[in-house]
Amino acid sequence: MVLKQKLATEFDLFEANDTNIMLFTNLGGEEFKFGNHSENFDLLYEIGSSSKMFASLSIFLLQEKGLLNINDSIGDYLDKEYSNQLVVNGIDYSKVTIKSVLNHTSGLGDHLNSGDDEKVLSYVNAHKKPFSFEEIMYMGRENTTEKFTKPYSEQAYSNIGYILIGKIIEFISKISYKDFIRENIFKPLNMNDSLFISDNSSNKNILCGTYKGLPSKISPSLAQAAGEIISSLEDMKKFLVGVFSGKLVSQETLNIIFKSVINKSTNENSRCFGYGFYIDNGFIGHAGQTFGFLSKAFYHIESKNFIIIVQNDAMVSEEFKKIIEILEEKK
Fold first, then answer.
1. CA quadruple 320, 44, 313, 161: dihedral positive or negative?
2. Where exactly are the structural domains of the chain?
């Protein structure tokens, strides 16, 4: 109750603006939601890189069916239009393992996290057509921040890697990545409100994303399996509870994922990316950022506590930071 009252007080203090912040949690012993704008908590938002949890689980669903092994090379399950473009600086990245892509140790570069959001947005907004994989690879090679590196030498975040994960899922399943997620994750967990950016839905509950107060959205061709899902607070709760109660994959698979996120670093502030998930103060999940949204979705295995928070502005606001600080204190 103390946490709920503290958060309620904080939300009341927020200055009136167009940014919509929503929180759903059961920390403190009871479920509650807060929002700084309306009582409509059915609003939908881009979950960004939290989509990587869905992509990773899809790979493990295929592994449980004996259709792949995460130790296999990604090139074994990619059409030539993708694998032929994976030679960079003399390194053939089609030979890296699936698991190295899942935990960002493949050496693949990134096409979005350049450290210069303004430049990326300007380039993307000037591009009127969907991005091809060739163009995505060009953006990755030109990125001077998240560069292509020697495979298995370090952990370096790669959205390109997760786009390839989506292509692997399509190659094996013979259906689109979106249909695979719908049939194998959305439907079993009754995530009836969840969809994809490229669905171009006219659903009026979909929040408009912003960047520095101006309308902003990401091209689905840039996100794909790395970050294209749109969801709601309730659906993300269904996802977290469903995954960690064993409704999607076996306990053996969950143990593999748990083991992958254990941070053995001596630096308490460092983040260890596992297979589509990472640990944040004992909670497992993933955060997300698109050109118009920030979000977090995390679950604590022992206590069964969950934290889901979203803001429809890609820039971290003082209000968003304050809520995170309060939640961190409670953790």
1. positive
2. 2-330
Residues with Cβ < 8 Å from 273, sequence gap 6 or more?
103, 104, 155, 157, 261
| DSSP run (H or E) holding 59 | helix 51-64
How are the residues of the chain apportioned to helix, strand and coil, as percentages rounded to the nearest 5? 40, 15, 45
**249 to 54, 57, 169: CA distances (angstroms):** 12, 8, 16
According to DSSP, residue 239 is labeled H
Judging by beta carbons within 10 Å of its beta carbon (0-12, 13-18, 19+), is residue 162 exposed, middle or buried? Answer: buried
Highest-scoring range by mean pLDDT, 6-20, 36-50, 105-119, 298-312: 298-312
**Which residue(s) pair with 275 in the sheet?**
none
Phi/psi-derived region of residue 287, left when phi > 0, alpha when psi is between -120 and 50, beta in every other case:
beta
Whether CATH 3.40.710.10 fits 2-330: yes
CB 146, CB 158: distance < 8 Å: yes
For the stretch 75-100, what's the b/e string if a residue is b when 16 or more beta carbons lie within 10 angstroms of its beta carbon? bbbbeeebbebbebeebebbebbbbb
pLDDT at 266 > cutoff 70: no
Q: What is the per-residue DSSP string for 62-75?
A: HHHTTS--TTSBGG
Supply the pTM of this predicted model. Answer: 0.95
Tokens 């929503």 belong to residue: 22
Residue indicated by tokens 């990619």: 78
Of the pLDDT bands very low, low, confident and very high (cuts 50, 70, 90), residue 119 is confident
Residue 101 is predicted with a pLDDT of 98
Give the residue among 275, 197, 189 at the shortest CA–CA distance from 237: 189
Least confident of 13-17, 186-190, 194-198, 208-212: 13-17
Q: What is the pLDDT of residues 73-102, one digit of tens each?
A: 999 999 999 999 999 999 999 999 999 999
Q: Which residue has the tokens 């941070």?
A: 263
Q: Give the span between the Cα atoms of 205 and 61, in whole angstroms.
A: 31
